[in-house]
Amino acid sequence: MKKISKDESVVVIVGSGAGGGTMAFELTKAGIPCVVLEAGPHLKHEDYVNDEWEAFGQMAWLDSRSTSGSWRVAKNFPELPTWIVKAVGGTTTHWAGAVPRFKDYEFKALSTYGKLDGANLLDWPITLDELAPYYDLAEIAVGATHRHGRPPLPANNNYKVFANGAKGVKYKHYATGPYATNAEPYDERPGSIQDGFNFQGDKNGSKWSTLVREIPRAIKTGLCELRPESQAVQITHDAAGNADAVLYLDAEGNLHRQAAKAVCVAGNSIESPRLLLLSASSMFPDGLANSSGQVGRNYMRHLTGSVYARFDKPVHMYRGETMAGIIADEQPHDPSRGFVGGYYMETLALGPSFLASFADPGAWGADFTEIMDAYSHTAGMWIVGEDMPQSSNRVTLSSSKRDKWDLPAANVHYDDHKNDLAMRAHAYEKATNLYESVGSTGRQLTPPYPSTHNLGTLRMSANAEDGVLDNYGRAHDVKNLFVSDGSVMTTGASANPTLTIVALAIRQAEYLAKQLKSGEL
Amino acid sequence: MNNYVNNTPNEQLLLVRMLRVMFPHKNFSDGPYEEAAEAVINAANSTPGQALILYNGLRELENSSFSTLDLVAATTYLERIEKSSFFAIVQSSGLVALYNNHDVWKTLGYEGPSFDLGGYLNRGFNDLDWLPEPRITEYEEESDQ
Hints:
Largest interface: A-B, 57 and 46 residues
Oligomer: heterodimer
Number of helices of chain B: 6
Structural class of chain B: mainly alpha
Number of strands of chain A: 16
Largest sheet of chain B: none
Shape of chain A: globular
Structural class of chain A: alpha/beta
């Protein structure tokens, strides 16, 4: 791997997940040297374990954090607002793989939904038409099934219940994808062996992640240095207000400085705003690039919930690709349902260890053991829909809690909007009907897990006063500072966000490369 | 690590009973509950504060003759203390240990690690036969599925 001097001004990418990993590959492909600072270790496929809690301890972001607000997570998991990964490849190493595109109107949330009390809605500064060519590139990169000639994955047991239930309630838009795991060998990755472990890292390497594709390919160009266990703690700037370096800590807590020509922040939607807030200076007293006051605000985590349905006959939901089942019939915006936006239903399975902890956190007694006793006869689905951006849903620096380096920890505040509550109630009812149509004998309505989809805390906006970033994800206030992860999303849309993060990053890398080559940066 | 609370037979007995009342599976043997009880003690021993909570909670169980109560009375007792820190420690660390137990997995019908066995590709990932084979491709408007 190429060694890059800490004094050489290069593009410094903070994070190696969907956004950061894609930036590294696209920029080095264009001949631009990059240093990638990854907070976590470089885990490989052979390091992963097929065990929920052991893998969680190995992969999850467990640094000190706090929560506030009325969301259930703050009650049951007050120190664990998110379930994301701290390792090379970021959260792409544990994501499930569902890759629908966002819809045209979801980029125009304010125009489509109108003003909603308490919601800080805004139209994106880009349209689906502008993003469509990059969606194609992203789908080819991740090897989405059902797209560009890729075959679908076969039906697993959980999907059979899900799809027959969909048919039972007259839904039409169900399929085993699009899904970013190979049904057959593609792009140097083998076909799925249906081992059922996604959230624990994919030992087989059939699932797309930046660990299997973008990071090694970026390193192969000879222009990328990956530094694992390097946690960015501050972005510094020169007298003109341009970013000039990133300060980071190694595993032992030694402080390093990497000179930067441009900085791309991709630390996921909690750490990215935290880094900008930690980078406050006399020129940027409220945090770097925060003249709008929007840094950390409008935190979205998707409307989620799960339904676990019991049957008289066996299902064995844990066998096979976890989320290779998507229903889109409830996705379209239809305000007659009593809420704006829509939601997908997606197959989901947990092992007994996680089901016990998350099915109804804190529950005990005979009602709870009934859920567990039915484990092998249970089918599961996840509900993922658009939640409303709210100014007060917000990532801030904690005034009391600090991380192990004595830096302020992130506090994550979240209250459900009444639109979110109405949508979740609707989704629970529809999911119940779906499973009853194929003979379900009982069901557990499971509240949201610690957030896996973390969005919006550094949003893009046409006007500098409404958001942090322009339409390429560049800070309105700092011309060589970019954000390359899900923080950029102006609104959350209903689909799983990874594909859109990758598409936006490919587009941003193309723009940044042009800027660097033309000498504008 | 200091063992503030020791895993004596008496403490085992009280905790196993408490865990059985909390998670009353008729078909679980004693082994997983005993291992969960040990996990609760180990978790509480991580700090003196937690250990004291466990120590005092167990003393109260003993003083209330908890182990002689039938399931209904014992459940009522736990409902009364369910907001206590003692209950929370036992519930949270006991639950994680109990359902992470491989004997429990077997009883519940979960097969555990699969990669080394070639996944489920040839071991039943699609063996459900009580429903028809569903369509796996996306809906096409013109077709009548």
